[in-house]
Amino acid sequence: MTPKTCFLIGAPMDAGKTRQGCLMGPDAYRVAGIEAAIADLGHNAVDLGNIVPDDAEAPATLPDHLHAPAEVIGWTAALARSAEETLPRGLPVFLGGDHALALGSVLGAARYAAAQDRPLFVLWLDAHSDYHTPASTASGNLHGTPLGYVTGREGFHGFPEVTHPVPHENICLLGLRSVDAPERDMLQKTAIRYHDMRRIDETGIASPLAAFLADVKAANGMLHVSLDVDFLDPSFAPAVGTTVPGGATIREAHLVMEMICDSGLMTSLDLVELNPFLDERGRTAQVMVDLAASALGRRVFDRTTRAFS
């Protein structure tokens, strides 16, 4: 594939939920060798270090039960700006941090895509749909709201304005297996493409992904890929605070990333919800680095077998 400049952007964000630990994620990816893995594929890997959130305040009109809304607002502004600044020069890889970072990474990607007069498409690899609003989330954890926000749902008072909402039909969710009833009801009223694990078990993971990628290509779209650790089955990737059994296998996950690579469509990438405090000798961090490498040109058969015992 054509060599790229990949900007590694650390986002030690731990404000999107109450369980702490994701702030250590960016450094865990670095220790697991993400920069070298990308460079070994012939790309120019540039580590921009960790960004910090903007100063922000949460307006009184936000629900009282939200966890750390001011901090999440500050992260959203900073991450969106980082996406807009790096996309003209290469492919930003956001090293999370919890999934609330996608409020900013997708917002910035959507702004840049609009400036290029191109549509933005989002591939959401996750056990959860993350389509809540501040009012609808029962937990108050804003890592469950990014897709609600970037599609222009109401209630995100004080957050940066979403001037270019991502059309629902431009979003594909793969790997769902934990969606609460109110969120499911909302999703079923939209044009979002969603594929839970039962459907993947029945039809395979390649077919729905190929159809989605074909539409991205036909529209000359930009593609933002958001990979949550809990997309994977926790037997392979235990370092996440939202473990849900029955997730994607290692082989299914690599197939997804290899198909993304083959398409040549990915323009930005999130690696989120890695909580090293819950990991087993760096196992999950290494898996995520290997998946990122697959999206950037490495094939499974090129990987060195690693022992974790």
Brief write-up:
With 309 residues, the protein is an alpha/beta fold. 34% of the residues lie in helices and 16% in strands.
Can you walk me through this structure?
With 309 residues, the chain is an alpha/beta fold. It is built from 10 helices and 8 strands. The longest helix has 18 residues, at 69-86.
Write the layout of secondary structure elements.
Layout: E1 5-11, H1 25-31, H2 34-39, E2 44-50, H3 69-86, E3 91-96, H4 101-115, E4 120-125, H5 146-150, E5 171-176, H6 181-187, E6 193-196, H7 197-203, H8 206-218, E7 222-228, H9 250-263, E8 266-272, H10 283-295
Parallel strand pairs: 1-2, 1-3, 3-8, 4-5, 4-7, 5-6, 7-8
Helix pairs in contact: 3-4, 8-9, 9-10
Number of E-type strands: 8
Structural class by sheet pairing and helices: alpha/beta
Hey, roughly how much beta strand do the residues contain?
Answer: 15-25%
Return the domain count. Answer: 1
Q: What is the count of DSSP helices, taking H or I runs of 4+ residues? A: 10
Q: Main sheet: which strands, in order across?
A: 2-1-3-8-7-4-5-6
Regions with little confidence, pLDDT below 50 for 5+ residues: none
Keywords:
alpha/beta, Arginase, Chain A, 8-stranded parallel sheet, 8 strands
